[in-house]
Design brief:
binds alpha-D-galactopyranose; alpha/beta; 15 helices
Length: 417
């Protein structure tokens, strides 16, 4: 009886997601999306697509009946005690110039970056910079599956705990990253041979164990990362293969059960402007909301490059329509590659500053855009040179932690708006 009920609910959710995506495809905009990490930037999209922002009446899936989610659940792995953090003094670092975090506070904005305890232990200047300038951090790898859950029965919270402790000591919030993604997973998962029921238990136990370990310590979790293709359809990810599209709804449900106060996000790249991908993301999150799935926000990664950033008018329209669904929006992983430009260095840095300023400016103009994070503290710690095999300087500070024009552009905007 219970089983047949679960099967029926699963089927109706597959049907809903299928209908949603099918319904959204004809409305797709016929132009390329933004760049995927590591791929040369797409041509900037034209602004004519703005008119195609769905209205409430024409939104794909708007008429679908709400359905309750009722998935099989699980308990966190035994022996995991809730993490306790020693209380520490939050600091508003006094400096001669106001820091980004001090200025951001006036805008009710989190300003953050990705980092790892390894960097902080070996580079005291970097950790001072992090604490002085940012009021949010996100673990670059420490909470990814291959690090935090390397073997079926073994979790390693040490790196995540170190970052959460650092954040607490310096009055910073933490974004949790990431629960469901098909990269940076351990071999026991990627090579695993399990039944569908077992995969469900594996994913459920992972999510519940990690989220409950950090219960009360995480402002927002990236629950599902990169599940949508450039054309707006659902990607054929590892978890899609194992569990079908309803794994997305399940993941949000399990995360909510494990920490009712953490905000739960869908996070992706290339759907920042208006394009088929952002249409697909919009339809997905709206469909999740309509079927009662607990989703609170959308993360826009914003890995971009000179000439590749989404037009501000599109970014603004996209954020606005998500905000109108009541969702919070975060810029989650911004960096701006210079390597595809042939201009001189000074010009490149000035153009990079403009892009950072423009994206932040849109964020400040949309009331539900609450966080702005870069993917790395300084150019020394950027993933881009390793990934592309070419030197680059995509962040706010150079390799030595010296602020670049992009930093000053952000400070200026935060101070003057
Ligand atoms: C994606 C992921 C991040 C990180 C970056 C770049 O955007 O969400 O965790 O891996 O790529 O490395």
């Amino acid at each position: 009886m219970v089983e047949s009920c679960i099967v029926k609910i699963s089927r109706s959710i597959i049907l809903c997601l299928g209908l949603l995506l099918a319904a959204c495809l004809p409305a797709r905009l016929a132009k390329p999306g933004a760049a995927t990490p590591g791929v040369a930037p797409a041509t900037p999209a034209s602004t004519s697509a703005i008119q195609e922002t769905p209205t409430a009446a024409s939104t794909p899936g708007a008429n679908l009946p709400p359905a309750r989610t009722n998935f099989p659940s699980c308990e966190p792995a035994a022996g995991l005690l809730p993490f306790k953090i020693a209380s520490a003094q939050a600091i508003e670092k006094p400096t001669d110039a106001p820091s980004m975090r001090l200025l951001a506070k006036q805008h009710d904005l989190f300003i953050g970056t990705a980092t790892d305890p390894g960097y902080l232990q070996n580079d005291s200047a970097a950790s001072q910079l992090l604490a002085r300038e940012f009021n949010m951090l996100v673990p670059e790898v420490a909470m990814k599956w291959e690090i935090i859950h390397p073997e079926p029965e073994r979790y390693d919270f040490s790196r995540g705990d170190a970052l959460v402790t650092f954040a607490r000591q310096h009055g910073m919030a933490v974004r949790g990253h990431v629960l469901v993604w098909d990269l940076q997973m351990p071999a026991w998962v990627t090579n695993g041979q399990f039944t569908r029921q077992e995969w469900m238990q594996i994913l459920c136990t992972h999510i519940k164990s990690v989220v409950s370990h950090y219960r009360g310590q995480i402002y927002a979790w990236d629950v599902v990362n990169e599940a949508v293709n450039q054309d707006g359809t659902l990607r054929n990810t590892f978890w899609m293969n194992k569990l079908g599209p309803e794994h997305i709804a399940m993941a949000f449900q399990w995360a909510r059960e494990a920490d009712p106060n953490a905000k739960l996000f869908y996070n992706d790249n290339g759907g920042e402007g208006l394009n088929p991908k952002s249409q697909g993301i919009y339809a997905l999150v709206q469909g999740l909301q309509q079927t009662g799935v607990p989703i609170d926000g959308v993360g826009m990664q914003m890995h971009t490059s000179l000439g590749g950033a989404p037009p501000a008018i599109e970014l603004s329209a996209n954020m606005q329509r998500l905000a109108e669904l009541g969702l919070e929006i975060h810029i989650t992983e911004m960096d701006v590659r210079l390597q595809y430009s042939t201009s001189d260095n000074e010009t490149k840095l000035a153009q990079q500053a403009d892009i950072y300023q423009q994206v932040l400016s849109v964020c400040l103009s949309v009331h539900n855009c609450k966080a702005f994070l870069t993917w790395g503290l300084t150019d020394r710690y950027s993933w881009i040179p390793g990934f592309t095999g070419k030197p680059d300087a995509p962040l706010l500070y150079d390799k030595d932690g010296v602020p670049k024009p992009a930093y000053f552009a952000i400070v200026k905007l935060l101070a003057n708006q």
